[in-house]
Amino acid sequence: MDDNEAMMAGLAAVGEAGVDIVPALFDRFFARFPETRELFLSLEAATGRMTNETLEAMIGLATDEYWVETTVINFVDLHRNYGAIPMAQYAAFIDMTVNALAEAAGTGWSAQAGAAWRRQAERLKAMVEEATAF
Prior knowledge:
mainly alpha; Globin-like; about 75% helix; oxygen transport; oxygen binding; metal-binding
């Protein structure tokens, strides 16, 4: 099973559990970075979009999609409008996203899914770090 297949199996487990990861993910994110909450003008719209875009980027990396690098650069550029965002904050959000998936899937989450999501999370963090250097 390749990373994409393992990741899709993990997403299917989340779907079967019927859990929306967005509320738990952002509860954690705002608990760790409370100063960021005021930057969200439309909390409901932004949190869902950020979560989906993060998931899509990791899946895109797993399938070697051509658009991922440009998309990540654009995400980083757009976030510059909110001030200097430290790499640790980006990394924490990416890790929290994977953790939220695992928790939502419960017993349906496999070691293969976890390893695949973590590998792509590391790739995404490296790509974000490179984009923040410009």
